[in-house]
TrEMBL record:
It comes from Davidia involucrata. PROSITE patterns: PNPLA. Coiled coil: none annotated. Keywords: Hydrolase, Lipid degradation, Lipid metabolism. Lipolytic acyl hydrolase (LAH). This is Patatin. It comes from the Eukaryota. The nitrogen atoms of the two glycine residues in the GGXR motif define the oxyanion hole, and stabilize the oxyanion that forms during the nucleophilic attack by the catalytic serine during substrate cleavage. Residues 78-293 form the PNPLA domain. SUPFAM superfamilies: FabD/lysophospholipase-like. Belongs to the patatin family. One of its GO terms (molecular function) is hydrolase activity. Its EC number is 3.1.1.-. One of its GO terms (biological process) is lipid catabolic process.
Amino acid sequence: MASNPSETHEPSIDNDKLSYEIFSILESKFLFGYDDQKLWVPKQISPAAEPNSEVSTPPTAENGVQAIKNQRGKICILSIDGGGMRNILSGKALAYLEQALKTKSGNPDARIADYFDVAAGTGVGGIFTAMLFATKNHSRPIFHAEDTWKFLAEQGKRFYRSSTGTGGSSGGGFLRRIFRGGSGNGTGSATVGLEKAVKEVFTENGRSLTLKDTLKPVLIPCYDLSSSAPFLFSRADALETDSFDFRLWEVCRATSAEPALFEPVSMKSVDGQTRCVAVDGSLAMSNPTAAAITHVLHNKQEFPFVRGVEDILVLSLGTGQLLEASYDYDQVKGWKAKDWARPLARISGDGSADLVDHAVALAFGQSRSSNYVRIQANGSSLGRCGTNVDSDPSPSNVKMLVGIAEEMLKQKNVESVLFGGKRIVEQSNFEKLDWFAAELVLEHQRRSCRIAPTVAFKQATPKPT
């Protein structure tokens, strides 16, 4: 094959990448036994292919590089922040995304779990994660995305307690409750309500589902008081040993055990070898996106061809910013310690989640717009929520949050800019989710055309019924 002399004077970055990919393919041949010498030849794998595009074109260096990129694929990550009742916002976003996947794939039974490779969730976001990926037959997920926010809207009153008002000073954030010496009504009844609710969700035919009963890798954090360190519940670890396999209802109970609202949970693995005293995962990581990315980058067994963040596609769902009362200098200059409780709770929760968002955007660099999407409500025209918006299950608060969620999807998307704060982009959150759904469907279709597997998930052994 003749070469163009003008292209041989200087080394090309694309040629370097192509060489690297060729060695990766040779490695895949060694690891997986594939022996296709035409692996690099581009394939017609676009979901929007023209009906008359049957004539193939000869491979070139340019489309060969693109085909290699298509062969490597992208690992798709879902991350859901913690936020108590505010997770109605992320639940509504999940419901819209799943409907978009059904539309774009043409599959009326498409589910979130069909298109994501890894899911991470904190607090109620952890409950949503477990719901979306839990299975009773190791084939299909039990729940639809619509079930997530409906679970919170309908069952929240069993474990959250309405306060005397939505705009006063009662309730609102675990720091305020700690300053006031607890929730007022004690934590016992709320804890019992939470345990009953999650047990009902994650029990099938009298058997408690465990981390092994999830379709794909899930990551759900808590804070372990016995070791004074974060603890990450992981399906990958559970499949390695029963010492890291935990009952899903206990995992959800642990990640959402907000201090002064719920009691800590003393839990142990299914074989009794690993124990922890767990409280709210939001104390460790209210936004688990970075943990999910790190899991993929350092898990070569399940994700053998990931080289960096350019091989990762991330959707991160927040639970709203600027939803509560704002303050000016004249208001705050005379505050006492108890007056700072709620603002500190918001800073420590939303602030740390926002910091992770900035760090992840920085890590993606120039590929952040094509590989990383953050869906977050930024204020609302419906007015400010009460100070206890995250723990108020009253019909009025649920109605307010559903309205904010619908407004959030219509808002312009806001993305973090390298060393430049944030900027409003042209697309709405609706449009961003539509675009992301199209990318997920495209990646799913391309995988059926690849020689080497994009992922090599550890498989759970079905448990006897």
